[in-house]
Amino acid sequence: MDDARAMKIVQICPYDLARPGGVQAHVRDLSAWLVRAGHDVRVVAPYPLDKAPLAGVDHCGRAVKAQLFGTGFEVSHARSRDRRALVASLRDWGAELVHLHTPWTPFMAWQVWRDLDLPTVTTFHATLPQDRTGGLAARALRRAARHFLTHSRAAIVPSATPLAHLRPQDAGVAAHVLPPAIDLAPWQAAGAQPRRADSATDPEIVFLGRFEARKGLDVLLGAWPEVAARLPGVRLTVAGGGPQEDLLHAAVQGAAGERIRFVPSPDAESARRLVAEADLLVAPSLYGESFGLILIEAMAAGTLPVAAANEGYRTVLTGPGERLLVPPGDAPALAAKLIEVCGDASARRALTAWALPHALSFGVEATGPAFVEIYRDALRS
């Protein structure tokens, strides 16, 4: 094919695009970059659960909430009439390639992908927890992965972590290890705003994410009394929402609870501001992280992350960043690391100088051309 011509690409996301999440951000930011690069993109996703349809998105299928391996997501289904109308529209538009995201999430994404019957690039975003890779659900996911791999011309994983249970070589498909494409410009802009003058004496720590078991909020709250006792001026902001919210309310009533601020489910702009205004972002996820988008975003905003050393986060915090990792699930180790980093201003400055260029190496401006090359190779096959 002509390497100079524009492509018509369909991005299929199985999740509610109105909900914050790494896959959703990747689909939105990669699609926007592709358009800026001269390509045509249509984004397919289920209707939002509790918000109005999104402009510029082809909604198809109704979603319901589901839970697996300690994380929440959506399961959707599209009626045949709605599916036929969407597929006819995409064909009339001239769609030539599908980029299918997290393909084992039923059912709408499968349905539209199958009906389109186009050359496919598939990204497997998820990583199974190590202690659950042998269960019935994990075996079913691996079986589904093999099906999608054999029907894909290329596979993408955000880090090498998922390769062990995907085994793309068994399907004869080469896997490309490529980080998610994220537009870091808004995070840089948030970080360019004047920072607090009292950060040296009254450090601010922020947690941003879903309050669910795998994200490790309970580990952070377990570490908090020791951190607060050793750092009298420290404050903690916990932003997000989810099933573990009761743990947060209990912590507010406990030791140093008056220095905990709860910000329920902030919008994107508010979330960026909360991170940029903090001295440290804490990301204590126990498992299930294929990459570390929140770490990249924080560093782009000028805020250092302290993170659990799960497989995905270790992919991001390399070199000098290894100093910011702690064992997953270890509240005393997390407390000690937060106290150490807050108390060492010179180390914080050195790590911050390293962090911004490191983060930008993962941004969509750096990674976008690699996606284009994978798409072109898929169409040449």
Walk me through the structure:
The chain is α/β, with parallel strands linked by helices. The chain has 2 domains: 8-182 and 364-380, Rossmann fold (3-Layer(aba) Sandwich); 185-360, Glycogen Phosphorylase B (Rossmann fold), CATH 3.40.50. It has 14 helices and 15 strands. It has helices spanning 22-36, 80-93, 108-116, 136-150, 163-166, 185-191, 217-230, 245-252, 268-277, 293-300, 311-316, 331-343, 345-360, 364-380; strands at residues 8-12, 40-45, 57-59, 62-68, 71-77, 97-101, 120-123, 154-157, 175-177, 204-210, 235-241, 260-264, 280-283, 304-308, 325-326. The strands form 3 sheets. It has a 7-stranded parallel sheet with strand order 3-2-1-6-7-8-9, with helices on both faces. Strands 12-11-10-13-14-15 form a 6-stranded parallel sheet, with helices on both faces. Strand 10, helix 7 (217-230) and strand 11 form a beta-alpha-beta unit. Helix 1 (22-36) packs across helix 14 and helix 7 (217-230) packs across helix 12. The protein is globular and about 65 Å long. The termini are close together. 48% of the residues are buried. The mean pLDDT is 92.
Which helices and strands occur, and which strands form pairs?
Layout: E1 8-12, H1 22-36, E2 40-45, E3 57-59, E4 62-68, E5 71-77, H2 80-93, E6 97-101, H3 108-116, E7 120-123, H4 136-150, E8 154-157, H5 163-166, E9 175-177, H6 185-191, E10 204-210, H7 217-230, E11 235-241, H8 245-252, E12 260-264, H9 268-277, E13 280-283, H10 293-300, E14 304-308, H11 311-316, E15 325-326, H12 331-343, H13 345-360, H14 364-380
Parallel strand pairs: 1-2, 1-6, 2-3, 6-7, 7-8, 8-9, 10-11, 10-13, 11-12, 13-14, 14-15
Antiparallel strand pairs: 4-5
Helix pairs in contact: 1-14, 2-3, 6-9, 7-12, 10-13
